[in-house]
Amino acid sequence: MSTQGAGPVETVLRSVLVPVCVIAGAAVVSVFFFPGIVGSLLTGRAILVVSLMFFGSGLAYVALLPITVDAKTEEARRDAPYLLRIRRLGWIGTLRGGAARFRGFLARQNPITFGVPVAAFALFFAAYYLAPSGTQSVVGTVESVLLFEFAWLFLGAMFLAVLYCLFLLIGPWGAIKLGGPDAEPTYTYPTYFAMFFTAGIAAGIVFWGPAEALLHYDMPPPFLDAQPRSGGAVAGALTYAIFHYGFSAWSAYVAIGVPIAYFTHQRGAPLRISAILTPFLGVDGLDSRWATLVDVLAVFATIGGIATSVALVGQQFLAGVSYQWGVTYGAIAPVLVVAGLTLIYVVSAASGVHRGIRRIAGIAIVLFILFAALLIGVGPRSAVLDIGTAAVGGYVVDFVPMSLYLGGGLVADEWVASWTVWNWSWWFSWAPFAGLFLAALSKGRRIRTVVLTGAVATSAATAVWFVLLGGTSLSLQRSGTADILAAIEAYATPEAVAGFPIFAALPLGQLLMFLFLALIIVFIVTSADTSTLVVSILATKRNRAPTTGSIVFWGLLQGGVAVAVLLVGGGEALQALAVLTGGPFAVLLVVALVGLTLTFRRQERGHRSPVARLRAAVRDRGIAGPSEVLRDDD
Asked: Which residue in 157, 275, 554, 569 has the most C-beta neighbors within 10 A?
């Protein structure tokens, strides 16, 4: 038996975090439920600082709790992908011999996958600072060409991912067990689902849950052919919200993750995005320029996507608080939020998958379920059921035409480019880190289980969330109980505040608001800590586990990029750049699936589909099939 996290430094840290969390928590709860008393005593900045102290100290304490591992489990985990190995934080050692450790840190980094993204971000912000309009114009032009002229690429690649996932579910290759027949999963199934779901969805599901269906109801998609704010737009508006976060979106993650998992666990490829090129380059060829280019793109897409999301969450979190309590904040407030979030996810990432990431993912799922159950209890259940049933039915019936709809030609119309194609590109840009994380977690599981978890279970969870929140917002708006659209129209980011007028119109609204804000923090942390680990792996030399120093560096870099977005500006341009990396990964998804198919056809013969196994079971039991019955009658 061995215990990780029981050292003197972490013990002291935990003893400090407990009282901080308790005191800050008491203040935060008082602000929510007794605003008239406490609100007059605390300024807006003080409320923000106390809130960050509460969430940060609580989540950091959970991440730093020790873990006891028996000898057998510890030996098994030494053979696990290096993403999953238990990490010792080594706070004392990190402070000693700083120069030597820094040289060792640089020696472990791949000079290209480490240096190119760092230089690219530095050049981008320098260009934006010196010539903001020119930089924005160039990025905007490229983005427009991709989203409009190449919309068919995004829609086609996404639909291919959907079809491939469906085939893996019902076809013979779904029976392949990753890691060999004797491999065992590292985690239980609930933990496996929780970690992947929370890493892949981030805080977007929290913000857009109550907002997207309402915005489509206000300005219906052309596909619906419905009038704004009409009864004909209600179900279709929710259908499109589910569509943008449903099976298609999660299929992109799975279509990248399954090839990485197969070539890593079955063929000995290193755990990195470039493993998808194994059929074309071979395992020994994954040090080539093409493989390095793929990993560089993955690092850039991951940091750009996560850092922009962290910056947006900081702004949106403050917008929601300002809307609810009328508190005004200066320019430094979003920086404080980003700094607090960075501290939390760096501690979580440095503590490792087994400790911080696993536990905070579990907290996120518990809050997710608690919030959903509470909303069911106090919300307009009958109306939500009616709207949700119609929306899910429309999703099933219109899934194929919605997936292929460009607006009447090969060039996307304005709405499709701004919503569907943009969403698909964003999901593709997140697919590298989410897919690699899924691959690392999936050793010991059959490919069919990976698809069921990564695409079916996750999309079912997001559908339930959108039905509950979107259905509630539409019901309250239609019935006149709350004019949510009027309340949010003055805000540049309406998705940041759409939830608050909804909760204000429901019983237990203050509790719903508290859980809502907690979900925002926890979900962005679960994505940012995972992305930090993934980027650390991609930037480290092949077959080397990243050190604590590497994890801290990349976590701080992501936070630094988020702060630069807030201070220098360029958030829209950086977000556009991150989205633009979805174009290359849409192409790479097709390449990955072609290579995986060729490998399966050559090396994975003899597997049977569920239908074939059912037929064999029927035949073995001596049950007469149709041909036998006909023969007996003759």
From this structure: 554
